[in-house]
Design a protein that fits this description.
The complex is a heterodimer of chains A (1012) and B (480). Chain A is built from 34 helices and 38 strands. Chain A has 1012 residues and is an alpha/beta fold. Chain A folds into five domains: 102 residues, no CATH class; 212 residues, Rossmann fold (3-Layer(aba) Sandwich), CATH 3.40.50.740; 165 residues, 3-Layer(aba) Sandwich (Dimethylsulfoxide Reductase, domain 2); 136 residues, Barwin-like endoglucanases; 220 residues, Alpha-Beta Plaits (2-Layer Sandwich). In chain A, the strands form twelve sheets. Chain A has a seven-stranded mixed sheet with strand order 5-4-16-15-14-6-7, sandwiched between helices. A six-stranded mixed beta barrel of chain A has the order 19-24-21-23-22-25. With 480 residues, chain B is an all-alpha fold. Chain B has one domain: Formate dehydrogenase/DMSO reductase domain (Formate dehydrogenase/DMSO reductase fold, Up-down Bundle). In chain B, helix 5 packs antiparallel against helix 7. The longest helix of chain B has 34 residues. Chain B starts with 21 loop residues before the first helix and ends in a 10-residue tail after the last helix. The chains are: A alpha/beta (1012), B mainly alpha (480). Chains A and B meet through strand 29, helix 28, helix 29 and strand 33 of A and helix 5 and helix 10 of B.
Chain lengths: 1012, 480
């Protein structure tokens, strides 16, 4: 019985029979008084709807007529009674019927739509295309037209859709923790603002994270004009303060550095993890392009990286040097002096190992003059940035591989200093009204500011936040913020391009955006963010056709002509020498004799703490430690041995009076006598998932030692903390799993003896005459960023299992990234290998399933029929790759309403007791195939894009028809360094790999004996 | 007794105690069921076993409510206690079938006194085993999909899967074992019917005896049926555990993928089965005073079977290690090294101790004549064979091809609960069996009573001739 059928009789239809003029008029009358929606709702009454349904279409006209004939009446009543009896047998669920009175433009039920938007970040927005199913965003992709994305994203963007539907988001306006209303807030807020207006805003302070939204910047600027004595402070914990100071020192101007990796042959990273995070998306794309090795290639970009902690960039480096934070500056000075940077002639003392490394790197850079670059990490002090600038100038990189532009922030500032001033004002009681527009300063402000205590001094504290956090807990008013997927805004990318942040869905809860709150302060309560953003750009638009411009901007996701132009800056001679000057002023060097050095780092999952309650990110194994649901104090192998620490040992860490208890994780490749403290954990107000997870490292983030320092004391407490990791074994056991080949000898791999015999099988060979799907993963360009892992989770509605289940070995990720270490544990080579289902042609899983729940498709997909699976797990046991995942318990949350909205409607939600695994995104295959067949052709070789492939910033994953010689995947399978994992088992995997290439091997003559 | 006329006593030890007449045999065995006062110990034993059954029911309830996740299974180790216990129980069952069928066909008369409860043991062990494959699947309510039955889905099971072969092998085995046991019981049920004092028991035993009157035609039919069933059961002794071993041998996992698996599993099954028979027989003959029927000769023979099959099993262990080395495959070699010296190394060495070293004591006649020593060794072998399945299932799975996926398996309290629960079920059934059915075949034992001389042994199947010769085929009235 169709629920679309019981629509009201169409009175306008003149063909409908009528018996009297009265009847005809009455039929028209109710409609005239209702709008279309009203008509639809008339039929909401279940009883009426059922009656309509049950008696079919025709009698509905009878019912609607007042004049009901006796026979008709009996017919209807009799029929209803009969059917009522039948219906009583199986209770139908009550369903509301909402007819599409007006079909939204372009919406075809079942067909997703994609809208361009952008995810704002302090380092520049990431342009996105968001898939929307019937009005609900389900999957985030990168916007191919956006310069920071080029179609890819980072894991954070992938997980943003879950943040939108997070059931622990703030849903109501609250005053001091009690439910209140927006109206009550406006009353109190307006009164406070009125008082401020009188004094010119002397007691008004606004605190925001780094603003990259031109509209919000304009609004705030305007507001500050109205309140001349008010102040606006920006604070993001992972900010550009040091880079800004470095640029000011070097050039006397604040500039952003852009490196074009595609034109580099050698790159030096001074603790710059440029491949991670949102800004790493574009960098990884360019970096991968410069490192992609094919049959004819004879060169690839060589990366040298000196770092204290372990990072994706370090893992990708050809020459990696673990150094304590205090050693980075002298190391940079040595390289700079070798490169002939003026003013650093007197190179500092370095150990022989460091000096040899520095000299090798300097020689490589010097040989690649004009085709190389030096990057300094955001966490490095200004002096290192200045040195990096000087080196780039000395290497002739500026203008070729390195260019400078305006900074991405709308109002660049020394954030730490501004925050310190604000805290002082707060402490002095001079702030009457404090408005915190997102951000969480109580949690992430430098420890010595005691920002929580300071904040509490403000007379009225208003905080706009997505969910309850440490700052809202200390505020009078907590206004729920809108998510970027549900409100209008705009945001700048690192290169200056502006994107309109376009909402995908109306605010789920009673949320407001920063634009709205600022508008309220400006006395424009009720202003809609859409109007504000549009008006901002309309005011700047000179051309006549704004509507066309606006539509184009929304469609493309990028406003034309907003990119920053290259800024030419000149190196001030004093910069390098001042940077090279006395290194004793560096805090990292002070007191290094007592205790360990330490570095603070944003976390690959929680970032600066904002994603602490995001289950996808929490459960995503950290790229190198494979930890989930926790942070741990990372420590080098030898140091751990010296302190007799094992994984999971709880230690007390004390730095200048601040203490925290933290579990230890031994990280091969970590600098010795140094520990890493990942930020973003130990949250006290982060919803049910994030609260109390891990330890809080912010107490160690001080103004004068934001990212590193010395004098950390460790004391073993003799307790253990359970750390849930997804991979416990680091060693490849000399198995040929991740193959590494020298650049000059891609075909030098010896085939396995088992393959020499050719195929032997009991069964006749299966022909794949049509399309044959396959995937090739380039291990040389994969950086292991995890974007594919979360993309897969998002696309395929993969459940989250929680820490205990991960610890029990039951993670559900269909795609995992295996990480192996090779060589000396103090500085091993890191080998990363994404492992989805291999879709073996001779699949061991298929023969052992007793019910035929896993079978082979004619195109070579290893298919999993969930409905048929009884859950013997035999397939999983017999899978040599262990890519199958079993629902040991009821993992899928079928209860929480908001999470239902996120699920991909094209993918079945799996129940308890069912096996699942990578399907090569069979729903995407089908969608494209159906579209192709409608036009009478087979699907093209490269037409289908899997979720992991689409999101990969390094374009390391290629999928397509291996039978089509023109397809990218078929060509890659012809590469000399192409191989299949465990192919000696005669599984004939369809997912295959391109070997990792050792860039240094090719230069055997030049690099002999060089330290790696 | 070792009278010159007794054809059954080889060497010095008799298979029946001295001084028994046909009447005394019948009397002594049937009185356990009918007249003797139920000892207090039986109630205590049944009570303890019932606690085990309660544990089993709780464990099953918990499992069905939450899912297989209540066990310690995980990603590399998809099979754990459930499959270990399944293989262990099935293996234990094998001794019963071997004793009933093969020793019958080989005319090993000494089997007579132990075959009935060995068969019962088989049946109960198969019942315990049957719990596991059903419950270990993720959706047990759909486990019937493993059966080939016509259905609207138009789906057959997948016949290439060894798990499906298991379904056939185990269900056949259960059916044949039950039939064999029941058919063998019929003459004794008639005896009980005739001797029972209470009308209720007369009716119950009477119904179960299927109207047995001990007529010559009955005996002829019985002979034919029993002989056929013995013939059917004989290949099952070999086939069932062969098929069970295919679950492992057909896979690609190092440690599983080995051609040695079928013979090695069959020998292991007989090994563990005889150990279990010893484990049960020794206390029962003591408690019920059946030393005359289950004599030292029986214990000695069973010990020898244990020794022989134990040596075959150990050959299997040696070959596994040899193949791993000789294959040259790094995966196989690592598997073996990991078995011996990996995190579960203790289980391998415990297994070697239990199954290889300790049974060597049985070479000594003195050990074989010590009831206490035999009991202890039998227990050790039972533990050893359980460990063998643990080693095969867990140490092969937990570290296979890709080191990235390696993990550990730790059984949970619910794993143990289900295992202990099936042991409870086993003893529960066993206690009921020894109380309500003759645990030793009365009519077959009567054949072992030294012939009085006038009737020479006839041709044909031994039991039939003996039954006819004694004239005590059924019923008190016809007892001489």
């Amino acid at each position: 019985m169709s629920h679309l059928a019981p629509s009201a009789p169409r009175p306008a239809d003149p063909s409908l029979p009528w018996r009297s003029l009265d009847e005809r008029e009455q039929r028209l009358a109710p409609l005239a008084s209702h709008d279309e929606v009203g008509v639809a709702h008339q039929h909401d009454e279940v009883g009426a709807a059922h009656l309509h349904d049950e008696v079919g279409g025709a009698p509905s006209s009878v019912l609607s007529s007042v004049e009901l004939a006796r026979r008709d009446f009996l017919r209807v009543v009799g029929g209803s009674l009969a059917l009522a009896g039948a219906a009583a047998c199986t209770r139908q669920p009550d369903e509301k019927i909402h007819a599409y009175g007006a079909n939204p433009e372009a919406l075809i039920p079942g067909k997703p739509l994609h809208f361009a938007t952008a995810m704002p970040w302090a380092s520049g927005a990431l342009g996105l295309l968001v898939e929307s199913h019937m009005g609900r965003p389900t999957k985030i992709e990168g916007n191919p037209d956006h310069p920071a994305s080029l179609g890819a994203t980072d894991p954070f963007a992938q997980a943003a859709v879950l943040e939108l539907y997070d059931p622990s988001r703030a849903q109501l306006v609250k005053r001091s923790g009690a439910i209140s209303t927006w109206g009550a807030f406006l009353d109190e807020f307006s009164a406070a603002l009125g008082a401020q207006r009188a004094s010119g805003g002397a007691g008004l302070r606004i605190l925001t994270p780094t603003v990259t939204s031109p509209t919000l910047h304009a609004q705030l600027t305007q507001l500050l004009r109205e309140f001349p004595r008010a102040a606006w402070v920006q604070w993001s914990p992972h900010n550009r303060d040091a880079a800004r100071a470095g640029a000011l020192a070097a050039f006397g101007a604040d500039v952003n550095v852009h490196v074009d990796f595609t034109r580099c042959n050698a790159v030096l990273s001074l603790d710059a993890d440029f491949l991670s995070g949102p800004s790493g998306v574009r960098a990884a794309r360019d970096f991968a392009q410069a490192r992609r090795v094919r049959r004819e290639s004879n060169s690839m970009l060589r990366l040298a990286c000196a770092e204290s902690s372990i990072s994706l960039t370090g893992a990708a480096a050809d020459r990696r040097l673990p150094v304590r934070p205090s050693q980075i500056r002298p190391l940079a000075q040595r390289i700079a002096s070798k490169l002939g940077v003026a003013g650093v002639a007197g190179a500092p003392e370095l150990s022989a190992e460091l000096a040899a490394w520095a000299d090798a790197v300097a020689a490589d850079l010097a040989a690649q003059r004009g085709a190389c670059a030096v990057l300094a990490g955001l966490e490095q002090p200004a002096e290192v940035h200045a040195l990096a600038h000087a080196m780039n100038h000395a290497l002739g990189a500026v203008g070729t591989t390195v260019r400078y532009t305006e900074p991405v922030e709308c109002a660049p500032s020394d954030q730490a200093e501004a925050l310190r001033a604000l805290a002082a004002e707060l402490q002095a009681g001079r702030v009457e009204l404090l408005v915190v527009l997102e951000g969480n300063p109580v949690y992430d402000a430098p420890a010595e500011l005691s920002f929580g205590a300071a904040l509490a001094q403000a007379k009225l504290r208003v905080t706009l936040a997505l969910s309850e956090n440490e700052t809202t807990a200390l505020s009078h008013w907590h206004i729920p913020a809108t998510h970027f997927l549900e409100s209008w805004s705009d945001a700048r990318a690192a290169d200056g391009s502006v994107s309109i942040v376009q909402p995908l869905i109306a605010p789920l809860y009673d949320g407001r955006s920063a634009h709205e709150l600022v508008a309220v302060m400006a006395g424009k309560a009720g202003a809609k963010p859409y109007d504000l953003v549009r008006a901002h750009w309309q005011a700047q638009h000179e051309d006549d056709d704004f509507e066309g411009f606006w539509k184009r901007a929304l469609h493309d996701g990028v406003l034309p002509g907003k990119r920053f132009s290259t800024r030419s800056v000149s190196l001030s001679g004093a910069a390098a020498s001042s940077a090279a000057g006395d290194s004793s002023s560096s805090p990292a060097n002070a007191g290094s004799s007592a205790g360990l050095e330490y570095v603070l780092r944003t976390d690959p999952a929680a970032y600066d703490g904002r994603f602490a309650s995001n289950a996808w990110l929490q459960e995503c194994p950290r790229p190198l430690t494979k930890l989930t649901w926790d942070n741990a104090l990372l420590i080098g192998v030898a140091t751990a041995q010296r302190l007799s620490l094992a994984n999971g040992d709880v230690v007390e860490l004390a730095i200048e009076g601040a203490r925290v208890e933290a579990p230890v994780w031994i990280a091969p490749g970590h600098a010795e006598e140094c520990v890493t403290l990942p930020l973003g954990y130990g949250r006290t107000h982060a919803g049910p998932l994030g609260t109390g997870v891990g330890f809080d490292a912010y107490p160690f983030a001080r103004r004068n030692a934001r990212w590193s320092g010395a004098g950390a004391q460790l004391r073993k407490l003799g307790r253990k903390h359970l750390l849930a990791v997804t991979q416990e074994h680091h060693d490849m056991e000399r198995r040929d799993l991740v193959r590494t080949l020298p650049l000059g000898g891609l075909d030098s791999a010896k085939p396995h003896p088992a393959l020499a015999h050719g195929e032997t099988s009991m069964y006749p060979p299966v022909a794949y005459p049509g399309v044959a799907f396959g995937m090739v993963i380039d291990l040389n360009t994969c950086i292991g960023c995890n974007a594919c892992v979360i993309a897969c989770q998002s696309e395929n509605s993969i459940p989250v299992v929680g820490k205990e289940q991960i610890a029990a070995g039951r993670e559900m990720h269909w795609l995992r990234i295996d990480r192996y270490y090779e060589g000396d544990p103090s500085n091993p080579r890191v080998l990363l290998q994404p492992v989805p289902c291999m879709h073996c042609e001779n699949a061991p899983c298929e023969v052992v399933c007793p019910v035929g729940a896993t079978t082979h498709s004619p195109e070579g997909l290893n298919e999993m029929t969930y409905n048929r699976c009884v859950g013997t797990r035999y397939c999983s046991n017999n899978c040599p790759y262990k890519v199958r995942r079993f629902n040991f318990l009821a993992y899928s949350d079928l209860e929480t309403e908001s999470l239902k909205l996120q699920r991909n409607p094209d993918v079945t939600v799996r129940t308890r007791g069912v096996m699942e695994k990578c399907t090569y995104c069979v729903q995407r295959i089908q969608e494209k195939r159906i579209a192709a067949r409608r036009t009478g052709r087979e699907v093209g070789g490269d037409e289908i894009v899997t979720a992991c492939q689409q999101v990969c910033p390094a374009q390391a994953i290629t999928f397509g028809d291996i039978n089509n010689p023109q397809s990218a995947v078929a060509k890659l399978r012809q590469e000399p360094h192409h191989y299949g994992l465990l192919e000696e088992l005669n599984t004939k995997p369809r997912t295959t790999y391109l070997a990792k290439v050792d860039a240094l091997d090719a230069r055997a003559s030049a690099s002999q004996g060089e330290p790696r | 007794m070792s009278g010159p006329k007794s054809p059954h006593a080889e060497g010095g030890t008799p298979v029946i105690g001295p001084g028994h007449s046909l009447a005394s045999v019948t009397d002594q065995i049937s009185k356990i069921v009918l007249t003797r006062k139920t000892p207090m110990g039986w109630f205590i034993g049944l009570g303890v076993a019932m606690l085990g059954v309660g544990l089993l029911i709780s464990a099953i309830g918990w499992l069905l409510w939450w899912g297989t996740g209540v066990w310690g299974l995980n990603q590399p180790v998809g099979w754990g206690f459930a499959i270990i216990n399944f293989v262990w129980w099935i293996g234990i069952g094998h001794a019963g079938t071997l004793i009933s069928a093969i020793l019958l066909l080989l005319k090993q008369e000494w089997r007579t006194s132990i075959n009935r409860f060995a068969e019962a043991m088989t049946l109960f062990a198969v019942m315990c085993a049957g719990v596991f494959p059903l419950l270990h699947v993720g959706r047990p309510w759909l486990a019937y999909w493993l059966l080939p039955y016509p259905n609207t889905m138009g789906m057959w099971p997948q016949f290439r899967s060894p798990l499906l072969w298991d379904v056939f092998a185990v269900s056949t085995y259960a059916t044949v074992s039950a039939l064999f046991w029941y058919v063998g019981l019929i003459p004794d049920l008639a005896t009980l019917r005739d001797r029972a004092k209470s009308l209720v028991w007369k009716r119950i035993y009477g119904a179960l005896a299927l109207g047995w009157r001990g007529a010559a035609r009955h005996w002829e039919r019985y002979e034919t049926a029993y002989g056929l069933l013995a013939g059917l059961a004989t290949p099952l002794v070999v086939s069932v555990h062969t098929v069970v071993s295919f679950d492992f041998a057909v896979s690609v996992i190092p440690g599983w993928h080995a051609t040695i698996m079928p013979p090695y599993f069959v020998a292991g099954a007989i090994f563990s089965g005889f150990a279990m028979v010893l484990t049960l027989a020794i206390p029962i003959r003591r408690i019920y005073g059946l030393e005359d029927f289950i004599t030292m000769k029986h214990l000695d023979n069973m010990a020898k079977v244990i020794l022989a099959t134990g040596m075959i099993v150990c050959y299997g262990y040696a070959m596994e290690a040899f193949f791993a080395w000789y294959s040259g495959s790094p995966y196989e070699r690592y598997m073996m090294a990991n078995r011996m010296f990996g995190p579960y190394g203790w289980s391998y060495w415990a297994l070697i101790t239990c199954n290889l070293l300790v049974p060597q004591l049985l070479w000594s006649a003195r050990v074989r004549s010590s009831v206490a020593a035999l009991f202890a060794i039998a227990i050790v072998v039972n533990v050893g064979m359980w460990l063998e399945r643990f080693v095969i299932v867990v140490t092969s799975l937990h570290r296979d091809y890709l080191p990235s996926s390696w993990g550990m398996y730790y059984p949970t309290v619910w794993d143990w609960a289900l295992y202990l629960g099936t042991i409870g079920l086993f003893f529960f059934l066993l206690f009921l069996f020894i109380r309500f059915l003759p645990m030793i075949s009365i009519f077959e034992m009567r054949t072992l009573v030294p012939a009085t001389g006038e009737e020479p042994p006839k041709k044909g199947l031994h039991i039939a001739s003996a039954g006819a010769s004694s004239g005590a085929s059924a019923g008190e009235a016809r007892r001489p």
